Amino acid sequence: MIDIAIGRPVEAGAREYWPRRARCLVVLSFCILLSCCGAARQAVEKEAVPAPDPITETATAATEPTPAATTIPEATPVPTPTAVTVNLSGALAECRSAFPDQIAQAVARASCVIKATDLVRPLLPFPELLDRENALRKALAEQVQTRTMSLLERNIQIQKLHSQLLEEERSRLSAAPADGSKPPPLAVTQWRQSNGESCGRLGGDSGTCY
After folding, report:
1. What is the chain's alpha carbon radius of gyration, rounded to the nearest angstrom?
2. Terminus-to-terminus CA distance in the chain, angstroms?
3. What is the pTM of this model?
4. Where in this protein does the record put region Disordered (predicted)?
5. Which range among 18-22, 45-49, 170-174 shows the weakest confidence by mean pLDDT?
6. Across residues 28-51, what is the average pLDDT?
7. 52 near 90, Cβ under 8 Å?
8. Count of C-beta atoms within a 10 Å radius of residue 120
9. Averaged over 68-90, what is the pLDDT?
10. Helix, strand or coil, per DSSP, at residue 165
11. Helix, strand, or coil here: 86?
12. What Å distances lie between residue 137 and 90, 108, 112, 154, 192, CA to CA?
């Protein structure tokens, strides 16, 4: 009786153990199968993707157009007036033609003359002398146009100042002589010869009286 009672539990345990072991083996086999399938799939995908052809890549790069370089146009320099191109007499003639009335158009004519003589300014050894003359020219033009000064009186004052400026220029040049071998520009000579004594009299030369 004792042997039979002990043997039954052993047989029952053996019957329960083998099914559990079988299930574990089935699960393990299934996991191994999945791993093998995944590895095989990755290998197939790697073989399916073709490697880049170096010859094709080189040919494609060679056929692509190279962008053209952008060329920035250079600015054209504006020519500045030189001593040869400046013609003071011609510029003053245009002022006389544009403003023929020396009384009613005195201010406009003086402004035109000042603008014309600005071309001579950089050519003068002492340009501040011309600045003083133009300052008086502008002030006198306003008085002439408002009829508070006669045109003759205006010409006399300009002639006197111009004579004084030339004397001052000669004095300063003698103190610091320049190169005597180089003649002065034509425009400078024209300015120096303007507003002579004849401009202080009636009927003076209007071509050089300004």
Report:
1. 54
2. 158
3. 0.59
4. 169-210
5. 45-49
6. 59
7. no
8. 23
9. 60
10. helix
11. coil
12. 19, 11, 11, 8, 16
Read off the pLDDT of residues 4-15 as tens digits, 9 standing for 90 and up: 444 444 455 555
17 close to 9: Cβ distance less than 8 angstroms:
no
Report helix, strand or coil for 76. Answer: coil
Tokens linked to 123: 């050519």
Token duo for residue 111 = 């402004």
* Token pair belonging to 118: 């600005």
Cα gap 94→152, rounded to integer Å: 22
Q: Can you tell me the distance from the alpha carbon of 190 to that of 109, in angstroms, rounded to the nearest whole number?
A: 19
Q: Which two tokens stand for residue 59?
A: 């040919």
Tokens of 116: 């014309």
- For the chain, what percentages of helix, strand and coil (3-state, to nearest 5) are there? 65, 0, 35
Which amino acid is residue 209, in one-letter code? Answer: C
Alpha carbon of 26 to those of 13, 35, 37, 201: distances in Å? Answer: 20, 14, 16, 137
